[in-house]
Amino acid sequence: MAEMPMLLVLEGPGEGQRIVIEQQPLIIGREDTCDVVIPDRQVSRQHARVRLEMDRYLLEDLGSKNGTFVNGQELAGPYPLQDGDEIQIALCCRLAYVDAEATVPLILERRAQGLRLDLESKRVWVGGQALEPPLSLAQYRLLELLYQEPDRVYSRDEVVAAVWPEDEREGISEQAIDALARRLRERLAELDPDAQYIITVRGHGFRLNAERTIRA
Q: Contact, 64 vs 47, CB < 8 A?
């Protein structure tokens, strides 16, 4: 068990690092004097801070240029952190908040499994690894559609409407749609070859495997 709350660096400089929140407040930024230094130009000199107030740890953006996000939502004021919250500093660093009573290995295991989309940065993670190079625009649009409601079956007409511009939709064949889904499967399999993420429902369309999907 963690004796004090901590931040886990999930992605970015210092990936895998565990930062115990001891001092108050804890400043995150690019400047060398910060408690958590992120040497990236997207990060402001003093970007965000964590402070204790009335037995709650609050996260605040310090007027940064590129924003601070929690679970995909940009902060507009002080936010009371909860165990498992995912913090994004600009678009270059992801942290997880681990409460003092949480079991760190379980948090790490949960974050490392499955498929996750960052809708702000348009990036894709599979098994805790960023998919590089990024998906093509058509592949990403298909995945983003299916990610909206995992386990819902999306028809081929819905796929065409989401993926192709209006002036190109007429004449898109079922073979073209199936080929797109196949290429997307192949890209995801580069990082997790044993899992099935994109499921074809014959006669109906496609769905995403909800059991393999991580939602913020």
A: yes
**pTM above threshold 0.85:** no
CA 156, 211, 111, 53 torsion: positive or negative?
Answer: positive
Q: Tokens standing for 53?
A: 């107030």
pLDDT, tens digit, 9 for 90 and up, residues 17-48: 888 998 789 999 999 999 999 998 999 999 99
Beta strand extents in the chain (DSSP E only): 6-11, 18-20, 26-29, 36-37, 48-53, 56-61, 68-70, 73-74, 79-80, 86-89, 93-98, 115-118, 123-126, 129-130, 154-155, 198-201, 205-208
| DSSP output for 79-108 | EE--TT-EEEETTTEEEEEE-TTS-HHHHH
pLDDT class for 94, splitting at 50, 70, 90?
confident
